[in-house]
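Changelog-adjacent note: as of this version, every example in the card shows the full chain rather than a window. The one below runs 409 residues end to end.
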Amino acid sequence: MKRLTFIVSALLVFALLCGSLSTCASAKNSIDKTLRFGSDGKFRIMQVADIQDGPSLKLITRQFLREAVKRVQPDLVVLTGDNVYGRICQSGKKNIDELRIRSAIDDFMSIFEKAGVPTAMVFGNHDAECLVTKEEQMAIYSEYSCFLGIDEGEEIYGCGTYNLPILSSDGAKTAYNLWMFDSNMYIYDEEGNRQGFDYVRQSQLDWYVKTGNELKAANGGKAVPSILFQHIVVPEIYDALLEVPEGTEGAVEYEGKFYVLNPENTAPGSSMREDPDPSNQNGGEFDCVKAQGDVVAMVFGHDHINSYSVKHQGIDLICTPGVGFRSYGNNNRGVRVIDLDEKDLSTYSTHLETFLDYYGDQPDQVLRFKMYINRDVPDNERIKSTILYVLLFPAIQIYRLFRLIFIRR
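Full-length structure tokens:
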């Protein structure tokens, strides 16, 4: 038994080391990172929210991400923060933290690198909860040939606030624009006590207005239609919701008040299973974006079991559920697909593709899904699923191998 334990431990360490080194070892694909609409006038974005694994991906998360890239066939992947869970990577030693962060980043970036998909990223509140700063993590991401992100510089608060123009199908002009905002991490008082989540700061908004005006000038004086991606939702989400009495079915509580999605401004298929969690300080981001007049949608992660699109003062506020299986989640674990059409850039279409969409017809995968922390599965059912999966997994794999060899020939 001791020997078996030693072997398993050695394999885990080896896997971690391999993960941290695979950036250098992986083949660097020749990836065209110029974003443009296809000859059919289409452009597809796959948003991945709250992977939040580390220092290595859960196997089930890796499986789903690989399958999602294969099925969605995106022109761009956008990671909207909490890409790694910095707390899990904490060791108290800088070199070990960096090894763990490298391993965590490589586990998902190598998927997009291998698929040859351009990939952008913003940070969330959990990414840098270790001894590896966001600037140092940005440098790690930049080692991948598929990565598009940059840090605009020290004069702009945070790390990784930038924009990505999408060219027209003929390459003649910037037809669309994507804003990537660092919504930062936490606010602290003078004694160092955490006072809630941070917000997009004025220097970021000043840069946004300046850059947006430059794009507008180059576009004949017309604002370039845009989508904005960041991790933490803006406080105005509560202005877009419907306040209801305490005890209303499905209502969430926030600062002593109760809310549900408003059917008058909410897209079909939306769900709100937890209270949206913005900063308790409003830095004026939404008002600034509204005044600029270019953004049609602001897209967030952060709240793992919310999946909604609500329109507020002409701008869609969209939340995408988490994809990772280490942290909490529900049956909506998946990715968001956003489709743009060059023929009408005033709008877009969007939908979720979930783990259960892909694997819901496979009993063993459903059992495996239920094994993980899941708000839609009671504890006793999760325990039962774990036992059944462990018992049935070998038989199911043998059966699949049998079908592959003898029946599908």
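Structural remarks: Residues 1-28 have pLDDT under 50 and may be disordered.
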